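dumping this here before i forget
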Amino acid sequence: MPELGGEITSLVGDFGPEAARKMRIASYRAAFAQAVRHVWRHDPLAADYVLAHVNGFYIHKDDTPRKSAFRDRDHILCTVYADDGTIRSDIDARQELLRLALAREGIHYDELRILPSKFDMRARRPYPEAVERIARVMRGELPEGGVRTTDERPDPPSAATVEDATSRLEDPRLAERLREAMLAGVTNGAAAGTGSARSASLAPSREAHELQRLKRAFCQVFGEDAEELLASVRGAALDPVRWENDRQRREGHERWWCHLYADDPRLLRAVVEHDEELRAHARDLGLRIQAIQLHEPFDVIRNAHAFPRAGYPIPLGTITPSADPFNEEG
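structure:
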């Protein structure tokens, strides 16, 4: 697909600078709306909700002086202003998919910045149609096709179910983590994909933040196939690598064992074939993975989704590296 910027330049070459600027802004906004609808294509109402809370979308050159080998090259920024914190989190969670979708529209950039809207900007509504559709839903007027809702919650697991699931794990640390997660209702929330999952996205744990980096690495390596691959992951957990002595702890970087539970042969093959590439991209994003270990999912999480389409990943338990709960010597 040709560059959108080149098409606009040739189209408005005979117009004045003000008309050219307005047409460029309108084209960028339309491209952003198309990209959002593509990324949230599984839930059109969610796409409308995102657009309704976006107050500004800009593609511009960063004029900040830079000290690097690329200081003489233009650094293009994509800046999104949104007035809702959960929307900013969802955009951040899908920023690699959004980058791919915008590239399909001919928009390319070096860095995405997602900023809160302040003062008068909060009143700007570049997508009034989306605002109106959301308003109708809030008034109780169902859009065409209705709204998908899921109010049912699964029953909490019994003690026997918890014991049966954890007894099959060879690693006692993972077994304890799963036991804590099941008793806390995390696994049930992931399996239902409803209220608990959304609550987790509002207050993500440290481990969820680190798994978010892994999700971005998947998007960078596998592109649009990443969403389908991650959908087959039933459980995900990170365990900190333990240093042999205090000197290694002081001088070394924090590293993790990554555990993924899935039975989809496509995911298994993809991880095995791209293991080094995945860990390299994760390292560039700030997540240092010692190794990715694949496991057969146990029955209680076979319908769970560790990487939901919206929000942050849902880990099996909560990680606290500073107070290591899995220290077998303690």
